[in-house]
Design brief:
The structure holds 2 protein chains of 2 kinds.
Chain A: E1 27-38, E2 41-47, E3 59-65, E4 71-80, E5 137-143, H1 151-157, E6 163-170, E7 205-210, H2 214-223, E8 231-237, H3 246-261, H4 265-268, H5 275-280, E9 298-304, H6 321-327, E10 336-342, H7 343-355, E11 363-368
Parallel strand pairs in A: 7-8, 7-10, 8-9, 10-11
Antiparallel strand pairs in A: 1-2, 1-6, 2-5, 3-4, 3-6, 4-5
Chain B: E1 22-23, E2 42-46, E3 51-55, H1 56-61, E4 65-72, E5 77-88, H2 89-92, E6 102-107, E7 112-116, H3 117-120, E8 126-131, E9 134-135, E10 145-147, E11 160-166
Classes of the chains: A alpha/beta, B mainly beta.
Chain lengths: 371, 192
């Protein structure tokens, strides 16, 4: 794919390393901040000069180099991509000193860079070393693997300012909003969408996370705008203390249900939201449920495999086929489903989804670990 | 005190590891979607002038070769000394003439991957149905997958259904989303 090349055309794009040349070159980056999610997991924000805008669901490769030159590379899903798209620095300074042409520059004053989403409201500012403008930032959330080589460093030892290298962002399949592929592309063979079908980006979204599989799904939750289709998240964790992003998710659900109460069904009916989903939203939101169905609506369900919190209606235990049916958007709504987690979790859940009538082409998976 | 050292946990360097790869002892699974439920297996092989179709029993009747080799995933893990059994693509293409230089592999479910024919013929590729002495598990592409260990492992299409030669190179599924059209791990042809 070569989408970012538009920004580098024309004026010779001087000085914008990373926007030209190999889009998968290693980029020097630094840790800006970090926040513990649980005792065993931490979110880290990196400033990555020259990074292309990332999409929710994509991953990056991280390369760490020890003092003696030893290196290790691992892939991590991005848990926040909102600050990866930054306004381009005007190319004015890069105009060379060739005064042959009169005052008006040949290049439009507004750089021909793809539209920057308005969502750059993310994390703390711009910072970064030595840059004239805002530096793209990305967040990963890493869980410590006790026999790991890289994750113990990232969770326990890494500090702001530490150097790291980033390659990416990578991936065009496990992303939301989804790519609308050309009808003659290789991908379309997998997605035989009929002519006139609702564009994929407008269909309801079901996210299903097992453990740390929540990271890329959180990136999807975070980029959804007020006009997004209904989004429902089911997250399975060992115990209440293993939940990530709890406060932020609670707040996002509250905000979306507050919006929903003020919106009438008629206003959203033209946006491709299934009627059944709209009516479901007539129920006022309670706690972390029931905001589903409104434009921009978000529902979050937690299930606990080992220890459930006091008062939780469901006893702790592994997710079952029957529970899945009650906790995900029904197949009749043809949601786009994203499942991420350990292979055994994804394999079980994806199999049940097919049994429940979800089309295999609407179920996208990302797995870690083996059989 | 900050800084990555990796001390105490470093993975051993190994000349069998291509650049940027690390040693994995498990066998990670990567798939774009659910594992397909294949009720009736059939393999279609086609060139510009001829085609052949093999049933499961046709395929089983062909001579199988044992393969011991390393595999390298684009997500940076490598697994050394794995054992497979399958039918060489030289056998599967035997007698089919072609002037084409590329092929598209198609899987159940519609996924595709493109390869140069030079990577598929000459004892470099197989359709395998056995891993470590047991029938290939569905999550790893069973009942049978393409096996091209000289390239990153996504080229070894799971749940293989067809191989179609083509005159010019076209990108398959993953290759349409930023993965390299060729995928040589020793040249680190990961993304393009």
């Amino acid at each position: 794919m070569s989408e970012p090349s538009t920004g580098a055309g024309g004026a010779g794009g001087a000085g914008e390393a990373g926007l030209v040349g190999d889009p998968y070159a290693w980029l020097p980056a630094s840790i800006v901040s970090s926040v513990a999610q649980t005792p065993g997991a931490r979110s880290l924000t990196f400033a990555v000069p020259g990074l292309r805008p990332a999409r929710a669901g994509q991953h990056v490769d991280l390369r760490l180099t020890a003092d003696d030159g030893y290196t290790a590379v691992r892939s991590y899903s991005l848990s926040d991509v909102r600050a990866s798209a930054v306004p381009a620095v005007p190319a004015v300074l890069a105009v060379p000193a060739v005064p042959a042409v009169p005052a008006v520059p040949a290049v439009p004053a507004v750089p021909a860079v793809p539209a920057v989403p308005a969502a750059s409201d993310g994390v703390g500012g711009v910072g970064g070393a030595g840059g004239a403008g805002p530096v793209p930032q990305i967040e990963v959330t890493v869980e410590r693997l006790d026999d790991g080589e890289v994750s113990p460093y990232l969770v326990d030892a890494a500090e702001p300012g530490d150097p790291i290298e980033v390659r990416g962002p990578i991936g065009g399949w496990f992303v939301w909003p989804p790519t609308e592929f050309e009808p003659d592309s290789a991908v379309h063979a997998v997605l035989p969408e009929p002519p006139g079908a609702t564009p994929l980006r407008d269909v309801p979204v079901q996210l299903i996370a097992g453990g740390s599989g929540l990271a890329p799904l959180m990136a999807m939750v975070r980029v959804r705008g007020r006009d997004a289709p209904p989004m429902r998240l089911l997250a399975s964790v060992r115990d209440p203390g293993a939940r990530w992003y709890v406060g932020e998710l609670d707040e996002a659900v509250r905000a979306s249900s507050a919006r929903a109460v003020g919106v009438s069904g008629a206003e959203v009916s033209g946006v491709g939201v299934p009627a059944a989903a709209v009516s479901a939203a007539e129920v006022p939101a309670v706690g972390v449920s029931a905001a589903e169905g409104r434009t921009g609506g978000l529902t979050v369900d937690w299930v606990y495999s080992r220890v459930a919190p006091d008062g939780h209606g469901r006893p702790a235990g592994r997710l079952t086929h029957d529970e899945l049916e009650s906790l995900v958007l029904p197949a009749a709504e043809h949601p786009l489903v994203y499942v991420c987690g350990a292979n055994s979790f994804v394999e079980a859940v994806a199999g049940w989804l097919i049994e429940l009538g979800h089309a295999p082409t609407r179920v996208r998976t990302e797995r870690f670990g083996g059989v | 005190m900050a800084g990555f050292s990796g001390l105490g946990r470093r993975r051993a360097a190994d000349p069998r590891l291509p650049p940027g790869q690390y040693l994995e002892n498990g066998f990670p699974v990567l798939s774009a979607g659910p594992t397909p439920n294949i009720k009736r297996w059939e393999l279609q092989i086609a060139t510009e002038t001829a085609q052949r179709s093999l049933s499961w029993s046709d395929f089983q009747a062909l001579p199988h070769e044992d393969i011991e080799t390393d595999i390298h995933c684009v997500t940076s893990w490598s697994k050394l000394g794995t054992h497979w059994s399958g039918v060489s693509l030289d056998t599967l293409f035997d007698g089919l003439e072609t002037q084409h230089e590329y092929a598209m592999a198609t899987s159940h479910g519609g996924y595709t991957t493109n390869l140069p024919l030079t990577e598929l013929l000459g004892g470099r590729a197989w359709v395998v149905d056995t891993y470590e002495g047991a029938p290939l598990h569905a999550e790893h592409g069973g009942p049978a997958r393409l096996f091209v260990p000289g390239l990153y492992f996504w080229k070894s299409a799971k749940w293989l259904q067809g191989l179609q030669t083509m005159a010019t190179d076209r990108r398959g599924f993953w290759e349409s989303m930023g993965y390299h059209p060729h995928g040589d791990p020793w040249k680190e042809e990961r993304y393009a």
